[in-house]
Amino acid sequence: MKVLVIGGGGREHAICWRLSRSASVSQVFVTPGNPGCATEATPAVPPDNTPQGYLAVAREAGADLTIVGPEAPLVDGIVDAFREDGRLIFGPAKAAAQLEGSKIFAKKFMERANIPTARFVDAYEPEDAIAALPQFEGPVVIKADGLAAGKGVVIVEDRNEAEAVIRAMFAGALVGAAGAKVVIEEFLEGEEISFIGLADGERVAALEPSQDHKRIADNDEGPNTGGMGAYSDSRLLDAATREEIMKTVMQPVIDQFRREGTPFTGFLYAGLMMTASGPRVLEYNVRLGDPETQALLHRMDGDFGALLHGAAAGRIDEAHLSFRKDPSVCVVLAAAGYPGKVRTGDLIHGIEEAEAAGAAVFHAGTKSTPEGLVTNGGRVLGVTHSGATLPEAIRNVYASVKHIRFAGMQVRSDIGRKGLRRWPETAAS
Length: 429
Ligand code: AMP
Ligand code: GLY
Known about the structure:
Layout: E1 2-7, H1 10-19, E2 27-32, E3 42-43, H2 51-61, E4 65-68, H3 71-75, H4 78-84, E5 89-90, H5 94-101, H6 103-112, E6 120-123, H7 126-132, E7 140-144, E8 153-156, H8 159-170, E9 182-186, E10 191-200, E11 204-206, E12 210-212, E13 215-217, E14 221-224, E15 229-232, H9 239-259, E16 265-275, E17 278-285, H10 292-299, E18 300-301, H11 304-312, E19 322-323, E20 328-334, H12 351-356, E21 360-363, E22 366-369, E23 372-375, E24 379-386, H13 390-401
Parallel strand pairs: 1-2, 1-4, 2-3, 4-5
Antiparallel strand pairs: 6-9, 7-8, 7-9, 10-11, 10-16, 12-15, 13-14, 15-20, 16-17, 18-19, 20-24, 21-24, 22-23
Helix pairs in contact: 1-10, 2-4, 5-6
The structure holds adenosine monophosphate and glycine (GLY).
The site of glycine has 6 residues, from loops.
């Protein structure tokens, strides 16, 4: 089958990479893609970023299946447009994509479905948000309702500061129109885990757990980013906890959407806080995570194309879902200035050497020029490797990273380190 991938970041490069290694897939198309995707997939240029525009690309490519990477097309209704045209696509319809598109929708949905999450108040005026503050002790979490590319969450300890953030958010000064409504919620403590499944409308099948590193600097310091690295390690969660997450956090979403007449098909990503009283949902995304996907797909065996085709057609075939037990690590190389104003155009060296050292180097913000490959975005590359143990995977990935350089390159040196306590028998290595 021919598969069209929508998106142009590291996640989409990893999706193309995995699909191009699937027995069921004869050709992969990608739009808009990036120079890395172009080695695995045929670039297709969209006329515009509307659902109808993407539909035209899929028709032109003769795509038997379309996979959507980022959330924006899903929230815009790309799946509805494809379904009306009788074209197979894997992702949630617009109604279900609200789970990511609106924090208020998500919180009320969780309440209806009895899903464990932080206590919250939804507010439509700054005064109401401020009036709600005394209901919360300790730090308070202020979230813009709409899509804000990871910038819509502010955690504040001081009440005056909270008021200032609320006023700025409503005034559009922080994340524009996305902050016209807000959620105020209780601050939760624990370790964050990314738990991703894929759903066919009725059932949901779990991928392996993973963990993102959102801050720019080592030891989780500095400002938040889209994600500076991720690892996937089965030891992140024991069997009983996985079962609990499936029962309390994943399947209830699928069941609730079915009850409400808007079945959920697609990737379901739960951002979890593992608190002392159990897993709590921080957020749902209706897509794969970036950079979690790069680590996850590096470990994946089996026919990814057939897996997604089955799920899109309403029947997950778990025979196609298997992971190697080897942990994997993705280290993001970011451009000068990231996560602030990013400098572009710096020449990138050493990708071939990194690949020769065994890594998969996924492109995110790169551009081909007559002078060579240059930086063209905040997150530039995702160097990904596996190993028999987590320490070995970390050693392997950093041995590859050291080959790559470009002016202003930012890289964390501690991706995966938090997971080492789960490998006590390797402590001496
Ligand atoms: P979100 O976009 O909702 O996942 O929030 C972004 C980040 O803010 C999360 O990855 C957490 O690190 C943090 N966060 C969000 N909600 C909470 C909460 N209720 N308590 C503590 N941290 C939170
Ligand atoms: N890595 C976090 C996300 O994709 O939302």
